[in-house]
Amino acid sequence: MTARVDLEREALEQFAARAREHGFVPLGGQGRGNRLVLMGNNYFQFGDLRVDTPTGHIVIEAESAGGVTNLIKYWYCLKSALIRRPMTLIHLFRQTSSQDYVAHLKLWDFLCDRMKSDLAGEFDAIRFQYRSLQDLLPALRHFESLLAESNRRNQP
């Protein structure tokens, strides 16, 4: 029997390593430090991986199935002030073929455009599809450019 490969975890590890290389502490998981609390023990996870910068948040969401929940929750969280600083979302969708989740990705694009308009200056997002870890290079480059820009802005 072949061992299951957790590509989402492996993908997130690459982003975490890049964050550390740029001097940031990556946050993730379901622990208390990565929650947007609604009430009591009800919460949203604040990204599969998150980097808090002096000017905002960079959030990575990794999906192995289609869907828009991990996009639209940020509309609610920014509008209701659960998140009080600007954020950039990098949303990763794992595919096994180029036709996987086309309807979900179309909905993602539609909702993302509305969110950017409604949350002008507070929210930005981009999505990437990947089949293997090598396909993540454009997303990793984008992430590193955001980290580098944050470091440049924060220098005296």
Question: Layout of SSEs?
Answer:
Layout: H1 7-21, E1 26-28, E2 35-39, E3 42-45, E4 49-53, E5 56-63, H2 69-79, E6 87-94, H3 102-118, E7 123-130, H4 137-154
Parallel strand pairs: 5-6, 6-7
Antiparallel strand pairs: 1-4, 2-3, 4-5
Helix pairs in contact: 1-4
Describe the protein's architecture and organization.
The chain has 156 residues and is α/β, with parallel strands linked by helices. The chain has one domain (7-154): 3-Layer(aba) Sandwich (Rossmann fold), CATH 3.40.50. It has helices at 7-21, 69-79, 102-118, 137-154; strands at 26-28, 35-39, 42-45, 49-53, 56-63, 87-94, 123-130. A hairpin with a 2-residue loop joins β2 and β3 (42-45). It is globular and about 45 Å long. It starts with 6 loop residues before the first helix and ends with a helix. The model has no long low-confidence stretch (mean pLDDT 91).
Quick description:
This protein has 156 residues and is α/β, with parallel strands linked by helices.
Q: Radius of gyration from the CA trace?
A: 16 Å
Strand order of the largest sheet: 1-4-5-6-7
Output the helix-strand order: HEEEEEHEHEH
Average pLDDT works out at: 91
List its salient traits:
156 residues; alpha/beta; Rossmann fold; two-stranded antiparallel ribbon; 4 helices; globular
